[in-house]
From TrEMBL:
Domain DUF2268: 86-293
UniProt protein name: DUF2268 domain-containing protein
Originating organism: Paenibacillus albidus
InterPro entries recorded: DUF2268
Lineage: superkingdom: Bacteria
């Protein structure tokens, strides 16, 4: 297994010193090009002229620092993610998260992995709602995390990477296409966050779970989501997964759901599944959602008790 780290801090330092005219192409070639296969799979054009001005830079800048924001003024931020120890800890988290699947007799089809951590866009409301950190690992072989670096987010990077590694493994076995439904997403996010806490403890449980209390989960979220599990189409199920505020930011129709409703529901649903079946988180990660949901019918009626 080959894990490659893309040191964004070194790229930021280079771009910060470049002229305004050079920044865009430098960023595109150094930060975006290594993820070319991911952009192709996501059908995001590498250059704007290919699709009415929308390209990887536009997409990436929604959550992350854009090339024009990378100046000497953000040097303190860059400095906070520039230590070798930070990147070694991140690499260790990725390596351990993936290697444990192999140790539990799950042979991974993908052997080459690339990961990086970018500085978050301070103007991103979505990032702010997520307490300053986020990630994406749904394309096998590629993992990206985002943070506004501070004392809260930096220690959470290893858990965020474990979460994204879990997605990365799952989608080496589970096919993602137009038939993907809300049930799969709830299961997937629940698996990923349970894996993060399995690896690094509940103290690093993400805000997408901790912001939901038992009353909200049992009375408001579960009764609605249980009826929507077969819902397909990202624009349709995203509001149930992310909640109304993020849905509105993405121009989706709100459905009266609180922040990250699907994530919180998924976290406890997977805990229920693991307790009921005795399966490991490793076995569960590669199990189809339909199979998992079939085993947890009792979850929807049982009162979930939240202990943290």
């Amino acid at each position: 297994m080959n894990i490659k780290t893309l040191r964004s801090d070194q790229i930021y330092q280079k771009i910060a010193q470049a002229s305004p005219e050079e920044k865009l192409e430098l960023f595109r070639n150094e930060m975006m090009a290594p993820f070319m296969k991911q952009w192709q799979i996501q059908q995001i054009p590498f250059r704007a002229e290919e699709a009415n001005g929308f390209d990887v830079i536009t997409f990436n800048s929604m959550m992350n620092r854009s090339p024009d924001q990378i100046t000497q003024q953000i040097s303190p931020e860059v400095e906070m993610i520039s230590s070798d120890s930070f990147w070694l800890e991140c690499e260790h988290a990725v390596r351990k998260s993936l290697r444990l699947f192999i140790e539990h007799e799950i042979s991974l089809p993908v052997s080459e992995y690339l990961f990086t951590i970018q500085l978050g866009n301070p103007e991103s409301r979505s990032l702010a709602i997520n307490e300053g950190y986020s990630g994406f690992g749904g394309i096998p072989g590629f993992i990206m995390c985002t943070l506004m670096p501070n004392e809260y987010t930096i220690p959470r990077m290893k858990a965020a990477l474990a979460h994204e590694c879990n997605h990365n493994v799952r989608y080496q076995f589970i096919k993602w296409d137009h038939t993907v439904n809300l049930g799969e997403l709830i299961v997937s996010e629940g698996l990923a966050e349970n894996y993060a806490t399995f690896m690094f403890g509940e103290k690093l449980l993400g805000p997408w779970v901790t912001k939901t209390n038992a009353e909200t989960l049992n009375r408001r979220i579960k009764p609605v989501l249980r009826e929507q599990l077969q819902l397909t189409g990202f624009d349709k199920f995203a509001p149930y997964l992310y909640g109304d505020e993020i849905a509105k930011l993405q121009n989706f129709k709100p459905v009266n759901m609180p922040f990250s409703a699907g994530y919180a529901c998924g976290y406890y649903l997977i805990q229920y599944y693991l307790r009921k079946t005795g399966k490991t988180i490793f076995e569960a990660t590669v199990t189809p959602a339909a199979q998992i949901l079939d085993e947890v019918k009792g979850f929807w009626d049982e009162e979930t008790i939240i202990s943290y």
